[in-house]
Amino acid sequence: KISQTYDLTDFKLTLELIFASNRTALIRTKIDNKTDKDLNLNLEWTGNIFNQFKEKEGGQVYKLGQSLQATENGVKSTSLKLEKLGATLTEETKFVVNYEGETKTIVEGNSYKTNLIAPVVIKSNESFTINSTQTYTFTTEELNKEQSKIQDMFKNSEKYFEENNIRWQ
After folding, report:
1. What DSSP string runs through 135-152?
2. Is 153 exposed, middle or buried (0-12, 13-18, 19+ CB in 10 A)?
3. pLDDT tens track for 78-106
4. Interatomic CA distance for residues 56 and 71, integer angstroms
5. 4, 12, 43, 9: which is closest to 126 by C-alpha?
6. Which DSSP category does 102 fall into?
7. What is the C-alpha R_g of the chain?
């Protein structure tokens, strides 16, 4: 498990990542309100892809041919066929990020921004938890099989974190 904590003035943000399957990482985001009043938040995630690679020797630049596409609950990166640098990627190779809840994603070139549609209100000294997944697959069949696992990860996230803890103890 990878854990990261930011202890800020008004809230504490804790991010925990585990590998819930051989294709998907499950990320739990917890926000603790440290104030004596309601905390009103608009949650947003941003990211980008690196779409070219430059060799150290010779300096040849390879365009990776990836593209981003907004999905119903996040974003997906699709590759074009690439058989260079010892890796074979095809049009079926996908990296998919899913967020719990209703979201809207905007893609601009190699960058994306996903917003949780409804604002989050966290009462004084209470917390809010939301999960997301990051999935990497090589074939459409793998991606299709992973979809039901992702839904189960969202529905039973605590079970996955408990199993991870037991496995690593």
Report:
1. EEESSHHHHHHHHHHHHH
2. buried
3. 876 555 555 566 778 889 999 999 999 99
4. 35
5. 12
6. -
7. 18
